From TrEMBL:
Location of the NAD(P)-binding domain: 7-195
Molecular function GO labels: biliverdin reductase [NAD(P)H] activity; riboflavin reductase (NADPH) activity
Pfam family, one: NAD_binding_10
UniProt cross-references to InterPro entries, sorted A to Z: NAD(P)-bd_dom, NAD(P)-bd_dom_sf, Polyketide_Oxido-like
Cited PANTHER family: FLAVIN REDUCTASE (NADPH)
Full protein name: NADH-flavin reductase
SUPFAM superfamilies in alphabetical order: NAD(P)-binding Rossmann-fold domains
Amino acid sequence: MRVTVLGATGGVGTSVVGQALDRGYEVVAVVRDRARLSVPDRDGLSVVTADPLDAQSIAPAVKDADAVVSALGTRTKGPTTVCTDGVRAIVATGTTARVVSVSASGAYVDEGDGIAARYVVKPLLRRLLREGFTDTRRADDLLRASDTEWTIVRPPKLTDGPTRGTYRTAVDRNVGIRISRGDVAHAILAALADPATVRHVLGVGY
């Protein structure tokens, strides 16, 4: 399998790159700055320096991919369109690859959330992180409206804990209150092999 990863220098993206290589996949890591990619050179890895928010720039990296993973995001507060622009760029390439995009359960409230999360934690988070969550929801809506074979992976709070390889999943609803970035990456790669997740949201968490 040939997997193109946008956001390859972030926590989840780096884990996707490393775990995909461990599985024997060909990986194309799209980066703005090669020096920021912490994954060492190894067989199967190609690194492309491009603007992940521009369709023409990423088109060569997306060409011939079996799957495209968007692990884009921002660490700063304030208005942002990073997730939306990244998804828009992927869709605009006209790719026929499977597209997996990382969302955030904090941007949504559903039956998978407990009472405390539904009425206390998430309303607070949605006020504090409203710009980022707005971007997340717009990206998700854009992907849902596309003709691609998409899966939206929706994790709760991310941690730097170990990759366990064991976690809970739920289709089209939230699950859990935290999960490591490594296990989100594990879930992304597992989703690529699971046709039941096509055109669905996959909630992941402990």
